[in-house]
Structure formats: structure tokens, C-alpha cells
Amino acid sequence: MRLKTKFILVSLLGGLSSVAIIGIVAYTKAKQSIEQAVGVSCQTEARETAAQLNRVLHFARLSVEQLSQMRVMEGVLNNDEDGMVQTYLMQFVRMNKGYVRISAINRNNEVVATSELDEPGDRFANTAAFKQVLDGRPYFDDVHFDEPSQAWVTTMAYPIRAYYNVRQVMGVLCVQWRVEELSDLLDLAERDRAGEEAVQVMILRKDGLLIAGNHMPRAWLFKRNLRSEGALSAVVATERKRGFIQERGADGRQLLVGYDFGIGRDDALTAEWITLVRHDAAHLFAPIRNLWDWVVLVAIAVTLGVLLLSMLISRLSAPIEEMAAVAEKVAGGNFDVRVRQRSSDEVGTLAGAFNKMIQDLAEQREQLFTAQTSLMHADKMETVGRIAAGVAHEVKNPLTVISMGLDYLSTGFPQHTDENVPTVLGEMRESVSRADTIVRGLLDFSASSRWDVREEDLNSAIEQSLRLVRHELVRNRITVDQDLGENLPPLKLNRTKMEQVFINLFINAVHAMPDGGTLSVRTYVQQPSMRNDATGDTVAAVVAEVADTGTGIPWEILTRIFEPFFTTKPPGVGTGLGMCVVKNIVELHGGKIAMVNRAEGGAKATITFKL
Prior knowledge:
Elements: H1 3-68, H2 84-95, E1 99-106, E2 111-114, H3 127-134, E3 139-140, E4 144-146, E5 151-161, E6 169-178, H4 181-191, E7 200-204, E8 210-213, H5 232-237, E9 243-248, E10 254-263, E11 273-280, H6 281-284, H7 286-331, H8 346-412, H9 421-446, E12 454-456, H10 458-468, H11 470-475, E13 478-484, E14 491-493, H12 495-512, E15 517-531, E16 538-547, H13 555-558, H14 578-588, E17 591-597, E18 603-610
Parallel strand pairs: 13-15
Antiparallel strand pairs: 1-2, 1-6, 3-5, 4-5, 5-6, 7-8, 7-11, 9-10, 10-11, 12-14, 15-16, 16-18, 17-18
Helix pairs in contact: 1-7, 7-8, 8-9, 10-12, 12-14
């Protein structure tokens, strides 16, 4: 497939994806808008239902208030001797079925007349409420169960005022209103909605008790508590909030519930009832589901198209992504990676050219590194060589003269002239000797390029070095743990310089164990170990390890141990060139040296020579 065709497919894929995304976004926004609009409508319906029921309660209270103001109620002053008050109350209850019981009470808290055929003389139980009404303020009670009538009622109490002096309260008119009237009114209102969706309305007491409703068994009334049952709408509404919410009903259906609080909050009514209007969410959101079905169909079609197109363009995107990843690795310095050539089209040709470029870069980088390293080393050796030559000319010859003079003074100076003279001469000879040691170290550091090398046995050089330092080992109570590998391949070495390396390492180990210890020397062949700098392949190597049981090397010293003139020994003891010369000798033999602290204590030097 040509590259141009692939790009056409990519463009088509992008167009289809854009259509799918636009469709999903449009559906999401439409769904949110419809749900919000329907929810607000449901909450508005709850508010209107609450207002309608509030008007019913207001009318009932207004009727009781008007009844308390009628002139016949002045009969409470003479305890209704003529029975007119009781007769009127009984007629009022027969004409208004919503009232369960009406009682007229005098100022002595004695019932003088009722709508029932009970004997007068009972007292109004709520003394505090009775005093409130005598003070001219109506009293309203929340929904409760009335034992005498065996009905759920709400209590209203109004003051009976004198006909010609409204400031004078003659008694109290107490009314129990049947709360089940609310359910009857809701059923009547629902019948007026014939042909429309069935809407369930619930009226709750402020603690969540169901006190009225439609489209439900009447046995639920005054028994179910929706807040206790965990209905989220009831929980939220009882917290004096308005709004709408989706929740699952007891029958498992998804419901949209609008809620409002505050039925009958006018005047001095203490009740705070809650209205819930519950719709079947499946019916309300049917248009949204239909729209979603279309969105799903379009999404499936787009997905199938994407899958087909992705199969066609995978051969285009995969090589490009692989080249990008390889380019990132090359930028990080890894020139061993390559791009696979998957096809013979333009992308395959590009992959081949890319691999050729990486190969050329790797070769040029290696050549540049080798030339730079050689140039830097040559420049360093030339500089140090000039310094060493100058030191040999300017320092070593005067040192020789001074040394000869000291020898002359030691033998030719008159004896016992001054007892301090031998001491001073000894100190001068030690200082000259130290200066000579520094000069020889510089000469060793700069003369490495003139070494002669031949094939030597590394074990033999190590054994000779141990013999040369045996006196120091014995004097410092140090035992040697020697594990030299058998049949080591010969290495091209300068025997003298290599013995100098190990003698230096052995002496440093002795200094690290002032209280005695163990010096471990080990050689072996490791396969594979080192990487060939030219080819990148791993090759076999000969490894020599020198370890001690001393105190180890602090980290801040370990990082600088191979720096020239860096030493931790006291002045006059070390020159700071020992480990620097060791590293230089090892590297000029094509090897590497590393110093580490051992976990069990002490330090270890590892020298590796590639074969």
C-alpha cells in the first residue's frame, strides 16, 4: 500500500472519529439538559402540590377560626346550660367530614361541650397549649394518633372571644382534623389526570413518617418511615431542602423524585411536612434512551470503521513509532539499537536509511572518542613529561649535591661539637629522601609510554610482589589468604610496573590494618566480563582482587582516591601519587581498576584485563 493511500485512510479515520465524538458530546449535553428540565418540572410539581395541600389546611383552620368567633360560642360562660354549643358542634362535624372531634373548653380547662355524646367535664391535657390559647394565640399540633377516635389527626385550638369585646377570651375551641383527608384529596386529584402518566405523591411528617399518599396500599400510611428506610429523597427533604433526585424504589424501579418541604408553614403552625412527587424514570427518560440507542449504533459503526482502518494503517504507524523510540535512545547515547524493516515501500526505505545513519554515527562517535582520548592523554603525558624533565634538571641534581654534602658532614664533621648535629642531619637526610621519592613518582607517571611489554604470568608477578612486602606483612601481624587461579592465560605486561601496582596495593592494605588482619589475593578468569570498545561484544577477562579487613574507605575519600597528589596520610608519609600511578599503569595495560568497600568490612581493589 502506497504512503499516499495510507494518509487518505488516516484522514478518513479522523473524520469518522470526529463525527462520533461530536455525536457523543451532543448526546451528553442533550441528556443533561433534558434531565435537568424534567427534574426541575418534577420539583415544581412537588412545590405546587405542597401549595395546594397547604390551601386545604388553611381553609380547615380558617373554618375553625370562624367557628370560634360565632356568637353561640359565648355559651361556654354558663357551661352550655342550654346545650346550644354542643348541638352546633355536632351539626358542624356532620357537615364537615374532615373533622373528627370538636370540644369547647372554658377558662377553668373544663370541656363544656363536644361534637360527641361524651359527658362534659374532661380537661384539656396539654396545659401549656391551653395557657397559650387563653393568651390569644392559636395552637397547632403535628400529626399524632388520637386514642378516643382511633384516628390520626392534627390538633387546632383557637381562643373563643367575647362577641362585643374581642380582647376578652372566654374559652378554647379545640378541633381534631382527620389527616387521611389528604390521601382522599390526592386520589381525587389523580382521577382528574385520567389518561396521563400515573404520578405518586407522598406526604411525610418532618421525621419521615408517611401520613398521606396515592397509588399505594392504605396500610402503608402511618407505618412506613421513608427516612428510616433510607430513601435518599426523604433524607434530603427532611434537611429542609428542595430539589429533585433519582433513586430506586422499593419495587426496584428507577424513580425521579421531586421534593419540597413546608406544607402548612403559614401562621403559627409548627408542622413542617414534606411533599414527594415520584415519577417512573423509565417513562420520563424514554426519549433519552431512544437517542442513546442511536448514539450507540453510530458508535458501533464508527468503531468497526476504526478497527478496519487501524488494521490498514498499522503498518504505517508502527514503523514511525519505532523510529521515534529508536531516535530517542540514540539521542541518549545508545547506538546499539536498530529499526526493523517491515516493508519495501517508502517507510521501509526510510528505516534502512535510518539504520545506516545510526551505524555511521556510532562509528564516527567511536573514532572521535578514541582520537579525543588519545589526544588528551598525549597532551597530559607531554605536560607531565615536561614537568618531570624540569624537576629532574632543576631539583634532582641539587638534591644529589645536598645528599652528598649530608654524607660528607656525617663523616667529616668533628665529633661531639654539638650533640644536636646528628639529629639535624638525620632530619635533613629524610627530607631529601622524601623529595627524591616525589621526583621518582613524577618520573614514573610520565615515563609510562616508553614501557616494554611481553607476555607474562600475572600470578608470578603477584607472588613476587608478596615476597617483596613479606617483611611488612609479618611485622604488622597480617596473614595472607592466597587464591590464585590455575592456568591463567598469559598477559602482555611490563613485569616491573605490574609488580609496582601490587606492591602499592599491598602496602595500602597494610596501612589500613594497623592492628593486624587478613590480606586476601585472588585471581580468576571471568567469562564474559568486559565489553569490547570497538565491537560492543562481551569478551573474557582476567580478574585480580586485593582485599583487606581494615576499616574501609570513607565515601568522600573513595570518590577522589585516584586523583594526583590526594592523600589521607600525615605530612611526610605519603606523596599522593601512589594510587594515581597505579591507575595509570593499569589503564596503559588496557585494564580497569575499581575500589569498593566490602559489606563484611574493609576495602577491595578489583583489576580487570580483557583477553
